[in-house]
Write a structure and sequence with these properties.
With about 220 residues, the chain is α/β, with parallel strands linked by helices. It has one domain: P-loop containing nucleotide triphosphate hydrolases (Rossmann fold, 3-Layer(aba) Sandwich). About 45% of the residues lie in helices and about 10% in strands. Helix 8 links the parallel strand 5 and strand 6. The protein starts with 19 loop residues before the first strand and ends in a 7-residue tail after the last strand. The relative contact order is 0.17.
Length: about 220
């Protein structure tokens, strides 16, 4: 009998998207839009960042004590929403936020004694939350974000000062420069607007069809208006 032909190696496994994804970035960077699209494509459960914080309006008006109340409300709500969603491991998960980022705003907004109390609760709550498989960090300059806030026409958001917005952007950069708990894809959105332009969104989605290992960066090219 003639020798058998060499066996064909099995095909390489297709890329499987991560089971849990968190999307992060400063205000008006496009977190909610991207989370909605990914949740639909992956048939995933979506976890929304709280938008009904009753202390937020007072915080934007710089009312004394409102920062601590607003921060604790966010901390409790974010922990509860993620802990509940993570109980069902059979369903993919897309979150509008990363739980650990709660500290970014706590360090910016809270006084020393408030921060000590906050940190006690944060450590206790964090034990019940698993890190995601992938974090997508959306970047944009303060100037771009200010323009998007103006177009949103939210009275509360318009009270955010340029100085505070700049401080938030810098805090995000500092936080994610050291982040290592999950695979991380950093996407600069200053030259694109995937909320308003579908071509920009499709460019972004094509990148997300490729695997991410460790920390990787993506600088998309903007499309014409």
């Amino acid at each position: 009998m003639p020798p058998s032909p060499p066996s064909t190696p099995p095909p390489a496994p297709m890329f499987e998207p991560p089971r849990s994804i968190a999307i992060e970035g400063p205000i008006r960077v496009g977190k909610s839009t991207l989370a909605r699209v990914l949740a639909e494509r992956l048939h995933a459960r979506r976890v929304f960042d709280p938008e009904d914080n009753p202390f937020l309006a007072d915080f934007y008006r710089e009312k004394p004590g409102s920062a601590f109340r607003a921060q604790m409300y966010f901390l409790i709500e974010r922990r509860q929403r993620l802990a509940e969603a993570q109980q069902d491991v059979a369903v993919p998960l897309v979150s509008d936020f990363l739980f650990e980022k709660d500290k970014i705003f706590a360090y910016i907004n809270l006084e020393n004694e408030e921060l000590k109390l906050y940190e006690r609760y944060f450590e206790m709550f964090a034990a019940a939350v698993k890190p995601p498989d992938l974090v997508i960090y959306l970047q944009a300059t303060p100037e771009v974000l200010r323009d998007r806030i103006a177009r949103k026409k939210s009275l509360a958001e318009k009270q955010i000062s340029q100085a505070y917005l700049t401080e938030v952007v810098r805090a995000y950069e500092h936080f994610f420069f050291r982040y290592s708990a999950s695979d991380l894809l950093v996407i600069n959105t200053s030259e694109i607007d995937f909320v308003e332009r579908n071509a920009d969104l499709q460019q972004l989605l094509r990148r997300l069809q490729e695997p991410v290992k460790g920390t990787q960066y993506f600088l998309p090219l903007g499309t014409a208006e």
